[in-house]
Amino acid sequence: ASRQGRLGVHQDAGETYDSKNLRTKLVLLGDSGVGKSCIVLRFVRGQFDPSSKVTVGASFLSQTIALQDSTTVKFEIWDTAGQERYASLAPLYYRGAAAAVVVYDITSPDSFQKAQFWVKELQKHGSPGIIMALVGNKADLHESREVASEDAQAYAETNGMFFIETSAKTADNVNQLFEEIAKRLPRGQPTQKP
Ligand code: GDP
């Protein structure tokens, strides 16, 4: 089941979380236009539908996945929905996030530069131990590629992130991105207090 809510009004009363059923706040960061909303909609709804994005204010969608060890992870995915142009997001956006996904567009060196800015922001404002992923999206546009995978991989390694290239359009690696994050979440305690 997926659900959409506005910043700050979401309540989850009555649900319980234990070491087998994790709940995780995940924040998306990256330049406008790199495909953040499309990645989320691909993951949550299984479709590529650029027209259905939320355009004003932060929003989130949730999606639960099951891992092979019978753990379930419920992601509460926060999308900046246009707020990224203000360069610095409210601390509320980062608060309690166990995972952050920094997205750039493989055809845009500018968006890769901007991703590095967001990584620094996360290092300043994110929770200690936050799991960070660097995502090169629009991998289907490889003929127009301007950011080498090797450069992004090297940057990710230096910053303790994992790196993956995705295409929200073809669905390539989108589920894998979230599975990789799920596998890295700390076990044995809820990742976020209910
Ligand atoms: P956001 O501003 O980061 O949320 O970006 P959007 O999700 O709104 O996507 C911006 C534009 O990029 C839209 O026109 C999408 O159609 C396009 N887009 C998003 N993901 C992909 C992708 O994987 N491949 C291609 N070719 N286009 C994409």
From TrEMBL:
Single GO MF descriptor: nucleotide binding
Keyword Mitochondrion part of the UniProt annotation: no
SUPFAM superfamilies documented for this protein: P-loop containing nucleoside triphosphate hydrolases
Alphabetic keyword roster: Nucleotide-binding
Superkingdom: Eukaryota
Pfam families: Ras (PF00071)
Record has Nucleotide-binding as a keyword: yes
Protein name: Ras-related protein RABF1
